[in-house]
Design goal:
Strand content: 25-35%
CATH topology of the largest domain: 2,3-Dihydroxybiphenyl 1,2-Dioxygenase, domain 1
Protein name: VOC family protein
InterPro entries: 3_dmu_93_MTrfase (IPR009725), Glyas_Bleomycin-R_OHBP_Dase (IPR029068), PhnB-like (IPR028973)
Order of helices and strands: EHEEEEHEEEHHH
CATH superfamily of the largest domain: 2,3-Dihydroxybiphenyl 1,2-Dioxygenase, domain 1
Radius of gyration: 18 Å
Distance between the termini: 46 Å
Number of domains: 2
Number of helices: 5
Oligomer: single chain
Length: 159
């Protein structure tokens, strides 16, 4: 278990969400499912209360809090994708599972949790010493919904 684990609040769907997230990225697993020993606000004894899971080596906790949670982009999770095929696969999985696409590579899953789906190499473009290329890549990204690495690279290179 990591020393620090983000805890994501769900109404009652923590286990379902954790299983979905684990399907998105390698090196992911459900580590434990804890059931409530007593009735609690929003739930009964025996209901799933906490789900410990690992995504790509990072530990998380899913909590069934019994009331709807409000998520914002103030805290989000980034999936760094090896290539455009992985960007497409992860993006499409979230979208077809009830997600909502936003701008600039952001997508909310069906529970409202915000994610950033980022192709490897894009962050390096923005941090590049090629300031004009970084500006062009950033400008291109601002016009996208799902990030397109080929288009970002073309903009970075000045094409």
């Amino acid at each position: 278990m990591s020393k620090i684990s983000p805890c994501i609040w769900y109404e009652t769907e923590a286990e379902e969400a954790a299983r979905f997230y684990c399907s998105l990225v390698p090196n992911s697993s459900i580590d434990r499912v804890q059931r409530a020993p007593i009735d609690y606000p929003g739930g009964k004894a025996g209901n799933v209360l906490v789900v410990g899971f690992t995504l790509a080596g990072q530990s998380f906790i899913g909590l069934n809090g019994g009331s709807p949670a409000t998520f914002s982009t103030a805290v989000s999770f980034t999936i760094h994708c090896e290539d455009q095929a992985e960007v497409d696969r992860v993006w499409d999985a979230i979208l077809t599972n009830g997600g909502k696409a936003n701008a600039c590579g952001w997508i909310n899953d069906r529970w409202g949790v915000p994610w950033q789906i980022v192709p490897n190499g894009f962050t390096e473009m923005l941090a590049s010493t090629n300031g004009e290329g970084a500006k062009r890549a950033m400008t291109a990204m601002m016009g996208m919904i799902k990030l397109d690495m080929a288009a970002l690279k073309k903009a970075f290179d000045g094409g």
